[in-house]
């Protein structure tokens, strides 16, 4: 597991990433991107990552994997809601998360954090951005911000092969050249 980050404008980074090896055959990894236009994006992204990982770690043996992932998303969303109430300001985050159980990849996302699969040099986008392009700005249509979640939160399941690489990254990574000042966050997992 490799994590790379680069602070953006004025050395400010509202992205956060984390992973946890659950045992010799299982791991989870999450990348979150705090929402522009809302306060405390760096706090929101950190809460999402830490809450998701904690929930997966505590519940992986008790639930079906997809239920475990959904419960972790609900837990992260609930934590965002608690912080919103405490600080009296709206916060939110886009995210993408993977849970690898033996050779099966489970992934979920809300917003525009993406998951890619690199298989033998062929790169495939596994997620679809939840955004609306108004022509002058791009707005998230789905994210974690402490309110109710839709019933159709995407959770995909994919068979992995030896040497597959999974890349989870924010728009600062996939939209920008590596040499500019954009914020970048990515996790790469090699199977």
Strand composition percent = 35-45%
Query: Taking all residues together, what is the mean pLDDT?
Result: 86
Structural class: alpha+beta
Taken in chain order, the helices and strands follow as EEEHHEEEEEEEEHE
Number of strands: 12
Radius of gyration: 16 Å
Strand order of the largest sheet: 1-12-11-6-7
Termini Cα gap: 9 Å
Uncertain ranges: 177-184
Helical run tally: 3
Helical percent range?
Answer: 10-25%
Overall spatial form: globular
Largest sheet: 5 strands, antiparallel
What does this molecule look like?
There is one protein chain. The protein is α+β, with helices and mostly antiparallel strands and 191 residues long. It has helices at residues 41-59, 65-87, 171-174; strands spanning 2-6, 15-23, 26-34, 93-101, 104-110, 114-119, 122-125, 131-133, 138-140, 155-159, 165-169, 184-190. The radius of gyration is 16 Å and the shape is globular. Mean pLDDT is 86; it is low at 177-184.
Question: What is the secondary structure topology, with strand pairs?
Answer:
Blueprint: E1 2-6, E2 15-23, E3 26-34, H1 41-59, H2 65-87, E4 93-101, E5 104-110, E6 114-119, E7 122-125, E8 131-133, E9 138-140, E10 155-159, E11 165-169, H3 171-174, E12 184-190
Antiparallel strand pairs: 1-12, 2-3, 3-4, 4-5, 5-10, 6-7, 6-11, 8-9, 11-12
Helix pairs in contact: 1-2
Salient structural properties:
191 residues, alpha+beta, five-stranded antiparallel sheet, 38% strand
Question: In short, what is this structure?
Answer:
With 191 residues, the protein is of the alpha+beta class. It contains 3 helices and 12 strands.
């Amino acid at each position: 597991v490799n994590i790379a980050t680069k602070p953006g404008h004025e050395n400010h980074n509202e992205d956060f990433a984390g992973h946890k090896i659950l045992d010799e055959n299982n791991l989870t990894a999450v990348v979150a991107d705090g929402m522009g236009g809302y306060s405390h994006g760096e706090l929101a992204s950190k809460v999402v990552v830490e809450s998701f990982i904690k929930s997966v770690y505590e519940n992986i043996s008790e639930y079906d994997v997809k239920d475990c992932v959904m419960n972790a998303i609900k837990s992260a969303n609930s934590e965002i809601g608690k912080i919103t109430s405490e600080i009296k300001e709206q916060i939110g985050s886009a995210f993408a998360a993977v849970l690898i159980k033996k050779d099966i990849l489970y992934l979920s996302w809300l917003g525009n954090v993406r998951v890619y699969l690199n298989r033998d040099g062929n790169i495939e986008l596994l997620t679809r951005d939840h955004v609306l392009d108004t022509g002058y700005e791009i707005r998230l249509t789905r994210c974690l911000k402490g309110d109710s979640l839709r019933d159709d939160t995407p959770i995909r399941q994919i068979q992995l092969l030896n040497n597959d690489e999974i890349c989870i990254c924010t728009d600062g990574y996939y939209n920008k050249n590596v040499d500019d000042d954009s914020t970048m966050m990515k996790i790469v997992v090699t199977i």
